[in-house]
Design goal:
With about 300 residues, this protein is an alpha+beta fold. It is about 50% helix and about 25% strand.
């Protein structure tokens, strides 16, 4: 009996020992897996933190580079403004854009991408190069004119020099550049217009049939002109030299004087070639004779055309 109890006790002890060993092995495996997972997460977190730190550092560097470029652009425009006072309004407009962009970049947070701003800065740099290129070209032309003037002075006697308007060829560079910055028009044409049965415009020179006066022209490409919204005024004088207008209060300022206009149109000028048409709708029958049409903008007379009704 005692031998039987001893046998069972021994078997139970072995079973417990085996179960404990199995538990210990499983616990070791679980802990090992947990350590591997924790180690992997720590490595991943460290890499992520490193990437974020690198991205933030690169963003800060990119911002500083852009701000330095904009500051240099601002300084260059300051120098150009001092040298060419006649173009101060053009350069001030560009400096305003630069200041606005600098404020936007300064307010960027964290690792925000600066790719869009890099394109804007590149565009501003290109515009400055275009201005300098145009000014250098005018300088070259001015030097050629100066050389021609000197040659004329050396070859012609004083009596002949008095008959040559040499002063007009000795314009200063600032005056020439300022003149080049004015809006210019080409291909200006005015027509009498009637409508056919299909409501299509048909040119006419018969006074009684004309229903409107149409004036079309092209604003030429001019990189020195100030970019932005422009109001184009048309002033039409009939054969009796009476200005056509809808109201005596339809006036604008030209050379410090208030004058009546016939029609106007607001356009956005982006320094490129642009076609414009402006209409005067008939209030009463047009008279026979010649009408004179003047076009104004930015306190300048841009062009004149005529139309004669029969």
């Amino acid at each position: 009996m005692e031998n039987s109890d001893y046998f069972f006790n021994t078997e139970n002890g072995k079973r417990k020992e085996k179960n404990f060993l199995t538990f210990f092995i499983l616990l070791t495996i679980v802990l090992t897996i947990a350590c591997v997972i924790l180690t992997w997460q720590m490595v991943e977190f460290r890499d992520l933190a490193k990437q974020e730190s690198t991205a933030k550092t690169e963003a800060i560097t990119a911002k500083e580079n852009l701000l330095n470029k904009l500051k240099n652009l601002e300084l260059e425009y300051d120098e150009l403004s001092k040298e060419y006072e006649g173009l101060d309004s053009v350069f001030t407009n560009e400096k305003t854009k630069i200041a606005s962009l600098m404020d936007e970049i300064k307010n960027l947070k964290g690792s925000t991408s600066t790719e869009n701003y890099q394109a804007k800065v590149a565009e501003l740099e290109k515009r400055l190069k275009d201005y300098i290129s145009n000014i250098d070209e005018l300088k070259s032309k001015n030097e050629i004119l100066s050389g021609e003037n000197l040659k004329i002075k050396n070859t012609l006697d004083s009596a002949l020099n008095k008959n040559i308007e040499i002063a007009s060829k000795n314009l200063t560079l600032t005056e020439k550049v300022k003149s080049e910055a004015i809006l210019k028009v080409s291909d200006m044409v005015s027509q009498g217009i009637r409508f056919n049965a299909r409501k299509q415009e048909v040119p006419t020179r018969i006074a009684k049939k004309a229903q409107r006066i149409k004036t079309c022209f092209s604003l030429t490409e001019n990189m020195l002109a100030v970019k932005g919204y422009k109001i184009i005024y048309v002033r039409i004088a009939d054969p009796n030299n009476t200005i056509l207008c809808l109201s005596e209060s339809d006036i604008f300022t030209f050379k410090d004087k208030s004058i009546v206009y016939s029609a106007k149109k607001e356009i956005y000028y982006d320094n490129s070639l642009q076609d414009v048409c402006i209409y005067w709708e008939k209030v009463k029958d047009f008279k026979k004779g010649t009408y004179y049409i003047d076009v104004f903008a930015d306190d300048n007379l841009l062009g004149t055309s005529t139309i004669t009704f029969e």
